[in-house]
Each structure stands twice: as structure tokens, then as C-alpha cells.
Amino acid sequence: MLARRNEAQPAPQALEEAADWLMRMSERELSDRERGEWELWKASSPERTRAWARAQLLQGKLGGLPPSLAMSALDRPSSPERRAAIGKLALLLALVPAGWGGWKLSQTQQWSADYRTAVGQQRELTLADGSKITLNTDSAIDVLFDASQRLIHLREGEILVQTAADISPMARPFVVTTRQGRMQALGTRFTVRALPPQTHLAVLEGAVKVELADNRQQTPLIVNAGQRTDFSSSTFGAVSATDRYAGAWSQGMLMADKMRLADFVAELTRYRRGFIRLDPAIADLRISGAYPISDSQRTLNMLAQTYPILVSGHLNGYWVMLSRA
User: Fold this and answer.
1) Model pLDDT for residues 165-184, shown as the tens digit of each residue
2) What does pTM read for this prediction?
3) CATH number, domain 115-241, options 2.60.120.1440, 2.60.120.260, 3.40.1190.20, 3.60.15.10
4) Span 252-324: which CATH code?
């Protein structure tokens, strides 16, 4: 029986066990004794039956394991590399059926880009004209400088842009594009985040002129310092005051000022591999403070020390549950 979208989520332990069996089957043929143990395991509880159904669905989509995980199957059963691979595979099982498609698309977008960052990584680039680009977690860009323009295409993720004056005779415009539109810097510092089907723009210094990808007849929007907006490919959103902590991520910090815990967790999840599940009973808890994004476990520990929150980890830390202490 294949996993369905509306079925209950298998428990983390069952997903990890299913991932372990899938890894073992990828490395060799099971012996008769092992196959009997697998059959008993699979039928021993509804949780395990559902977990293995997801493993079958994932196998059908992939035709095998992703290469990076398949190589880990060859390691010793108790090696840290193999255990980490099992944890990653368990996460894929938790996301099935949508997870593999999104994972595959993300990998393709990332690896074919000119510059990219992994989850939890940040990277600063100095371009040929002296402009600086900082890529946030899980981001990818293409860079095209020619005789007529300086172009950055944001494929996914988020960037902080600090433009430099162009010294070429053409005085080339500095432009950032996303699927939703074109942003021309007017001597400025700003952040752009791809949030399909929208783009989020926050201007810290100077101004940015925005043109929509699918509505060129619309008068361009000028967003000034201290302002932010979200826009789709055809419609501008409202212009409002930017968050005073916009860009704090480039300094390695996640800032909260009476932020809902649910919103904070959504942001923190961007910087770590795995899941953070939140008990709805504490979703509206308001938190404040400065938290390091390079060490999400430390951030979770800080929350638990400051607020009535219990942090429970599973699957070697890949799956975390936050509940009321």
C-alpha cells in the first residue's frame, strides 16, 4: 500500500528504522534470516507499515537511493557517516510524496548556478565592479556583467546587495532579477528574497526601481530607504516600513522583538537541515532576543532556558519537537 497525503505521519523512530532497512537493502541482498526479520518488523505495527510504504514510494520515484546517500550505505553499520545518511533518508521519507520532487528541483537549481550556498551557509562575494553580494542560507545566483549591464539573477533564497559605482564609460545599471520582476539599484543597499510566487524587497539605503515581469505596462515602483514591499509577477504589494532588523542575518544573527514563536521557528528552520515541529499550544508565545543562526541547536537551547519550552530531539537531531515545558 502506498503512502497517501492524508494519512497520519509515521513516528520518527519508525521512519529511521525504515531508512535503515532501505539502506541495508541497497548495499546487498538480504539473507533469508534478515528477510524474515524485515517482514516481522514491517508487520509489527501500523506505524512501521506506513513508514515502509513511504520507503517503497521513494524507491519508485528514485529507482534507488540518491548517490550521496547510496555511498554512505557502504560504510560500517555504526559509522557516523552512515548514521547521518540514515537520518537524511528518514527526512526524505517524512516528506514523501512531495519531498523528493522538491529536493531534486532544489539540487538542480543549486548546482547549475554560478554561486550557491548550502542550508545554514552564508557567503560574501566581491564582484568585478566592487559591488558586494552576500548569499543567505540555501541560495543560488547567476552573475552576468557585459558592456550594457550588471545583472544578478536570484534563482532562489535571499541576498544582501551593496552596490558600487560603475566606472565603465557606459555607466551600466545594476539590476537584480527574480521570476517576479526586475529591480534596478539607484545607488543602494538592499535585500531580496525569493518567496514564490512573490519577491520580498527591503531597501536599507538609497532606492530601488521595480518593474513587474508580466505587467510591463504598470508604472515602475520606487522603493526608498527604510521601505519594503512584496510583489508578484503582475501586481505590486503595499509599501511599508522595513523591519529594523532586516539584514541582521548577514551578521549571523536572527533577531526577535516580541515575535510569535511560530514565526520565529519558520525562520530558524531555514538555517538547519531537518524538521522543527511546534505544539500549537505555544505557537503564539512572544519571544525577544538575538539568536545565532550558525548554531541552531544553541538557539533552541537558549529558548528552552528563557521560556517555558521543552525541546525534544529525534533522528540524531534531524527532527525536533517544541512543546510546553
Assistant:
1) 988 888 899 999 999 999 99
2) 0.70
3) 2.60.120.1440
4) 3.55.50.30
